[in-house]
Amino acid sequence: MARLAAQTAEELKSEHEALETARDSGRPPLLEDPLVTRVSVTMAILAVAGVILGSIESMQSAAAANAASQALIYQNRATDAWSALDARMVRQALDRGRDAQARFSDKDDAALAAHARAQENLSLASLREAERRGARHEILTWAVMLVQIAIAVATISIIARPRRWPWRAAIVLGGAGGLLGLGGWLA
Fold first, then answer.
1. Which structural domain, as residue segments, surrounds residue 141?
2. What average pLDDT does range 158-171 have in this prediction?
3. How many whole angstroms separate alpha carbon 50 and alpha carbon 57?
4. Pfam family example for this protein (predicted)?
């Protein structure tokens, strides 16, 4: 126990000497350096931007999947309507003994065909929406990645005993990520 206490006292003494040496060197301690404060604020802003962009990215991904699912539903409905129309055509041909090609003379058949075409059009529109949302998702993924890299680069600015160039690089990367994210959102 006494040996542990002596070892702890020795560690505290060496840390105190390191702080005294840093103070005597004329350089401000790390936590009092204004650059460290600026970099820390920049990192906080980048972190919030990354969270916001990540949330928007997730929403676009979910919306793309939802639109693709909706397209499948519409296509299934169209297929059902065309199948019902074909079944009706066969039934009419068998029941009335007339040619199967004459089926569109009936108002019900025309309405069923119009419904099938409308469902197909809705399916195509949903597929276009899914593609648009998917493209947004891809752009936003790159934007989030740039912001995350910017946070890592800003950290290097502090670790490498406050240097400005990594901080400036982080600002540029974060700005590029933000602009890319804005472009992805507006696309």
1. 36-186
2. 86
3. 10
4. DUF4337
